Every structure is written in structure tokens, then in C-alpha cells.
Amino acid sequence: MSRITVGNESLVGSLTPSNKKSYKVTNRIQEGKKPLYAVVFNFLDSRFFNVFVTAGGNRITLYNCLEDGAISALQSYADEDKEESFYTVSWACGVKNNPFVAAGGVKGIIRVIDVNNEKIHKSLVGHGDSVNEIRTQPLKPQLVITASKDESVRLWNVETGICILIFAGAGGHRYEVLSVDFHPTEIFRFASCGMDTTIKIWSMKEFWTYVEKSYTWTDDPSKFPTKFVQFPVFTASVHTNYVDCNRWFGDFILSKSVDNEILLWEPQLKENSPGEGTSDVLQRYPVPMSDIWFIKFSYDFHLSSLAIGNQEGKIFVWDLKSCPPVLVTKLSHNQSKCVIRQTAMSVDGSTILAACEDGTIWRWDVITK
Amino acid sequence: MATGMIGTRPLTKEESELELLYGKPVTVYHILQSFSRDRGVKHHLKASHDLFDFNFRLSENGHPNFDVSVKPDAFKNGLLNFDLEEHPRVNYKYRSKSRKRGQRVGRKERKSCKIFDKYADVVPRDETNELPHVNGNNISSALTSTHLSENSNDIPTITQPEIGQCSKGTHVNGALARTQPEIGQCSKGPHVNGGNVSSALPRTQPEIGQCSKGPHVNGGNVSSALPRTHFSENINDIQTITQPEIGQCSKGPHVNGDNVSSALARTQLPENSSDIPTITQLEIGQCSKGPHVNGDNISTSLTRTPLSRKTTQIQTRTQPKRGQSSNTKGPDENGDNISSSLTRTPLSKKTTLIKTRFQPKRGQSSKAKGPDVNGTSLARTRLTRKASHIQTVTQPEIGQSSKAKRPGATRRKGFHPQRIEDEGTDLLRSRQFYHSRTLQPMTLEEVLSEADSDNERDEVFQDLQERLRLNQLVDATDEQKRFMSLWNNFMRNQTVVGDKHVPLACEKFVKLHAKELIKIEMIWQWKTFALYKLCSYRLISAETMDKCSIILQNAKDKEPAEEDADAARAANLAAAAAALKFYGNGA
């Protein structure tokens, strides 16, 4: 279905840091014993640009990043089931722009927490297996998509708790779906990737009426006419192993597999023939020692740099605006030896957070000269 | 000796004379006394099982009763201790059909029940525990089937099965196998003591303490195993209900504690007179393998066999795991729906599985329950006449409480349609169900609505599929493909089956897709198709063509483009003419 065009070699980044910016550790918090799988800054609401949420074990905790490296805990929620292990968390909004936190984990239930009222707004039931990632549509923050181990991607309306669309079926993923991401500008499009080594781009254009209906649905959520979307717009096989993180970079996609690098590639779709297209790998960002799956990267709001951790507890910060790729800096600490599952960069890139397997959160702040 | 027994009035003159002549009459009291002394059932029972406590007493009416209660430590972890070991399975040769399907037994009178009715007064007994001397001559012979009528003594003799004797064919002691030896019950009818063999009990009477496979008669219950034989021949009071010997373990469903009602079990008698008494009355103390209900859920046990598809072994609570639902990781059924589990399965469901689960339908008990079935809740409905004597002792349940605890069936339950329906849906109400495709929780009304979603069609998806399929055609232009997909989708939804339908379908199609067909290229597609395919097969005539053209024309008229209309009109006319000619030629 996709062909890598010949003749265009992708550019590989060099691992020599340019050190244009440097960071230092300003704080370290031990949250508990369980591994932390996710840490996400709030990019939706400018009032809360310094607030981040972490997910690990059966807990969801909100923190505030203060100046001078201080971190204050704001709220903490624990699932009453001790067996639950949250794998992912995302910020969302209600219709009144009140902040929500959507978290999902091994039980397959997505908890939508109303942060202002400190209670659960909705529990979204429907996935048949654990939830691997939740992402919010920035243009319509009541919509979240969730990627699950049950090979499907579901679109939910967190305000009303309705499952609007299910992206699975004949053309869907054939193994666990590990990551999803909405397109930044095109509201109908998103990309998903999974253990079947493919990255699929989906469109919800045909079903947009259902999306709108979901806002005003008053009946029982289970009676909503949930539609199945079985065919993606495009399927790309740029990787040869599990693809555990993909993010849109404009119209390009940054995706990472377990072979120690992040690829930047361009999907070229044929408008009228869905399913056909090409993928053109443009650049490669090497990340040494990151060959276990479920390590996710993040970038700042303006897409100027990208931070990713590895198995050894080191963080690589790449400059996204340079071609060939330039490594900005490599962060390491002699006490940070644990797998970093996810990083989070603040809006302006001045703070980098790392969530580790041993339950610690490391905070790195940029050193201003 | 004018002295009577302790506690009774002194003998009258006549009585003492009789006594001199014939010897001391055996009275209930006497027997009871002997029982409660060293040779009482209690002792026998005790020997065989230590699950139950027995309390022998006389009821107000003067009938001997005994209460059975399960010892508190009989269960461990909710399972009968006995059941924790392995037992060989009962080989039930006879299984009543209706019971198999989990239906309530006893919808109609069965032959055997009639018999029981007749001899309802006779107490079923279990030979094993009967005192030899009491039975005097009857010991059975195990073999023959003596007709009960032969021995008609009024004396309710309890025929003891020869202790240790294994009677194949058993004696059916007249009495219903109910466990209680109705000692001294006045026999309404002949008792068959000892001698009655009821034909066949196929099962051997278990020796005391023995574990018999199959229903066996317990200590007091004579329940002869269902006679395989001809029921009718042996009058039997036999109840084949095998009362499990007290303390015995019977395989088969048993009801614990006092579910003696197991009697129910029997009801099926009529049909199969054959072996099995499947009803294993569980009698007291019996531990029978098979699904058993704790404590006194007899009622529940009655209920239909659990749905659960998993034949679990012992669970004291039969959880009905209603299999339903989709394979979702679903909500777990509540652990303790026992009650629900116990409730009946909707009649329609097949209880194919499980052998273990026979829940005898309790409550159905055989009709002829001897009058005094003591206490034990056997009470089965049919006890009928002697119902008054029956006392139900409900064992406190050990562990669970069953939701649908049926009251000791002291009266025959009617077959009220509402009740049946409610029972049928009990399981449906018991837990949360989920839709199978979207995995969303179902509301109760959805669950009960019996709507079948298997035939749902996703039209949008099918349309898409058709389009994709046609897309693969290499030699068709895009318009052709578009037209084909329109027509195919239309036809699939309309399900046109007859030739005569085609003209109507054409008109509909044109009306439906008028907007799209007005386009020049599409109109051409339509006409070509209509002419070369439909007309050439004589499926439509020129009239239809004309009508369609008019429809298209009208649609077009609403369009601003004037030239197109003219062109279209001209084209229409030409087409119509051509069709006529064609048709005319062909005619």
C-alpha cells in the first residue's frame, strides 16, 4: 500500500550535542513505587500552562510547576481498584471549557475527571482491553480518541460520555494500537500506530454528523448509533517493528519504533483513492538505548524541540527545525538510571519533565545564560 | 401387663387382653422409642455421616418427626466438605426430559404419581435403617416384587432393609421413599415392607454408611430407586425417589440439609421408569455430588438448572453464569447472585450441559408424598393430602441466600404465565449486560426486549464496500462505476425479486437519484443501461422509459440550465423512439 520513494535518502541526525541550550535538574519527586507511565502538560488552557498530570499505578496526580524548580501537588485521584494501572492521561475540556483529565489504563475504562469539582465526570466503558493512549482534539477539546490493546481506536465525547466512532475492522489495526494523535489543523484526521508495525491515517469526515449529534444526545449513551469505520485513508509501513509513538508534525509524522530512532516522514495521500499513497522518510533522529516499547516522546507547543528519554534514564533533546537534525543537548543525571517512559515539555520548552519507571518525576529547567 | 409404655395411659382391659393374645402391638411410639434409643436412626445416621444433626420428636399430631440440621462445620469455604473429595459420578440412566431442560417438573400428572397418590399414606422407608425385628417377615426379598397389596398390614412396619443387604430390585417399601420413615404411620395402603421389591430398584440399597451411586434410599427413605421397571406393576409406593440414605452420599443433585425435598426429584417418575431415581433426595446429610444447594435452598435448587454453561463442579451456589454476552471483558457477574443462579433458567434454554447440574426440580416432588414426610422440607407440592403433616424445616442456609427462595412447596404452584415469564427473566435481570459490538452497557429494557441485532445491516458500510469493489474494475470509467454503485446499492436495499418489479424499481431509482442522474454523463449512463440491459431483457417497456424520462425532466426543470433541458428532452425523445422501435421489433 505504500511505497518509499527511491532516491531520497533520509537525513540522519548526529549525536553530537550542540548545547545551544542546556538544562539542569531542579527537582525530583518520588511519587510512589509504581512506574509512572505518562506525564502531560496542559496545552489547552493558557491559565494552566504550568499544570501537569501524571499517571502511574492506580493514581492520577496533578501538579503545578512553580518557579525555582518547585513543584506543588494539587490533586490526586486513586482508583479504588488496586489492580488498575493507568497507562495514559490527557487533558480535555467540557463544553464550558472547564478542564477535564481523561485517564485510561489496564482495565480499559477511561475515567474523565472533572478537575474543578474534583470528581469523576464520566467513566467511558467500551474498550475490550487496556487503553494505551488518549489524545484530545485541540480544536474540539470534548473529543478524545483512545488507542487500545483491543486493536481499535475509539472516538469519545467526554462531555456526554458517548462512544461516537470505532475505528477497527477489515482495514484496521491487526494488533495492539499503541498511539494516536490528532492532526493539528485538519479536524477530521488522525493517525494511529501499533504493534502491527503500521501507521494508519484515518478520516472521520463522513461521520461528522454523528460527532455533532453526540453533543446533543440526551438518551442513553449505549443507544447512540456508534458507527464503525473500517478503512483508513492511508496505511504506512515505515517501520519494521512495534511503533509505539506517533505525533503529527504539521503534515508530516514523527514516529518512533523500538529500533532506537525517531523517523520524520511525509504521508502522500491520493485524494480520490483511499488507501493508496506513499510515505517518504525525510529525517531520522537517533535515540540510543531505547529499544523497549512504550517510551513516548513529546515536544513543546511550538514544535521547536523534542524531548525523549531512554532506558538508561537519559534525555535527548532534538531541534525540530533543523535539517539535518541537530541534537540540542543530552540530559543525564547519575541518579537517573531508570527507564523514562514519557517526557513532557512546557509550552515554551523551558521545562522538561520525565516520568520514570521507578515512580520518580524529574524536572529539568533550562539554564538561562 | 397393664403397664403401658412410659408416659402413656395405662392399658385398658381390652388392650391388655389383645396384648396377651397377640403380643405386644407395635406402635409408633414404641418404634420411635427404639429408634431413639440405641438403635435409632440417629445412631445409624450418625455412623454414616457427621454432617447432620438429627432431632427426633413427635409432632403435635402425634406423628414422628425428625428435624435435620446441617452441622455448622459441615461446609468449608462454602462447599460441602464431602464434596471436596472426588466421587465417582453417578450413572444416571434415566433423566427426565423436562428436568434436563431445566423445566419445572410436574406439569402434568404422571403415572407414577398417581400411584403414589394412591399409596400416599404409605411411608417410604429406607431399608437400611430399619430394624429387623420390626419388619419381621418382610425382609425382603428383595427380589420380588411383591405387590403391595399382598402385604397389607396396617401396621406400618418399617421394613428394614436387611442391613447390609444390597437389594437390587429393592424393596420398595411402600412408602415413598421419603426419608422419613413414617413410622407407624398408619398405613394408608399397604406398606410394603421389606418384601416389596419394587422392582427394580436398580439401585442397590446402600448399606448404611455406604455411598451409593445413584439414588439410594436412605435410612429412612425408602425411596426405592426408581424402579426401572414397570412402575405400574409394582405398586409402588416406591418412590423411587431415592432418598439418599441419610448420610449417604448420593450422586446427583442433592439438596443439602433438608432439602429433602429432593423428593422432588422424583417426580419424573412416570416417564422414565427406569432407573434412576434421579431424584436423589438429598436427604439429609446426603452429600450428593451434583449441584447441590446449600442449606435450604431447596427451592432454588429446584429451579432450573443453571444456566451456566460451565459445569462447575461444586459450587454451592450455582452461579448461573449466564453466558451471555459478548465476549467482553465484561462486567463480572456478581459473585453472589446465587439466588439468581438458582432461579430458573428460562424454559427455553437448553441445559445441555451439565450433568452435574441437575437440580431436581425441587418442589416438584412426587406427588405422593407420604403423609408424613417429616419435616424436611420436602414438602413437595404434591404432597397433597398429607400436606398437613409435612413440616418443612428450612435449614438455615449456609452461606448464601438465594434470591428466589421458593417457599416450601406446600401447595401446588399454578402455572401462571406471568410467573413463568418472570422466572424466565430472572437471570436476565441478574447482572449487567453489554452490547457485543460497541461494548456499551445495555439497559434492562434492551435486554428484555428480545431484539436480535444479528440481522442489522450497516448500509453505509455496505455501500462503501460495493463502491470499493467496483473500484477495482479496470475497464470501467468513473461514471460507469458510479452508476453501477448507485444501482447496485439501490437494488440491494430494495430487494427486487420479480421481473414485474423492475419497472417500478426503475421509477423509484430515477426518483431517488434524480439529482445525480440529471448530469449529462449520468443521464447517458442511465439510458444506456435501461435500454441495453433492461429493455433488451424485456424487463421494462417503453412506457417505463418514458415515465422515467419525465421524472428526470421534471427534476431538470428545476435546474436553471435551460440548454440541458432541451438537450435532455431531445435525447429522451430519441431514446423513447429507439426503445419503441426496439421493443416493437422484438415483439
UniProtKB/TrEMBL annotation, chain A:
Matches recorded under Pfam families: WD40 (PF00400)
Keyword Repeat carried by entry: yes
Domain of life: Eukaryota
PROSITE patterns noted in UniProt: WD_REPEATS_1, WD_REPEATS_2, WD_REPEATS_REGION
GO biological process: chromatin organization
SMART domains: WD40
Database matches in SUPFAM superfamilies: WD40 repeat-like (SSF50978)
Keywords of this entry: Chromatin regulator, Repeat, Transcription, Transcription regulation, WD repeat
WD repeat feature ranges: 124-166, 170-205
Coiled-coil ranges per UniProt: none
Family from the record: Belongs to the WD repeat ESC family.
PANTHER family reported in the protein's UniProt record: POLYCOMB PROTEIN (PTHR10253)
UniProt protein name: Fertilization-independent endosperm protein
Species assigned in the record: Eruca vesicaria subsp. sativa
TrEMBL record, chain B:
Keyword Ribonucleoprotein tagged: no
Region listing for Disordered, in residue ranges: 286-422
Keyword Lipid biosynthesis applies: no
Any one annotated GO CC term: nucleus
Annotated keywords: Metal-binding, Transcription, Transcription regulation, Zinc, Zinc-finger
Extent of Basic residues compositional bias: 403-416
Domain spans labelled Polycomb protein VEFS-Box: 428-545
GO MF annotation terms: zinc ion binding
PANTHER family hit by this protein: POLYCOMB GROUP PROTEIN, POLYCOMB GROUP PROTEIN FERTILIZATION-INDEPENDENT SEED 2
Annotated family: Belongs to the VEFS (VRN2-EMF2-FIS2-SU(Z)12) family.
Protein's recorded name: Polycomb protein VEFS-Box domain-containing protein
Organism: Eruca vesicaria subsp. sativa
Lineage of origin: Eukaryota, Viridiplantae, Streptophyta, Embryophyta, Tracheophyta
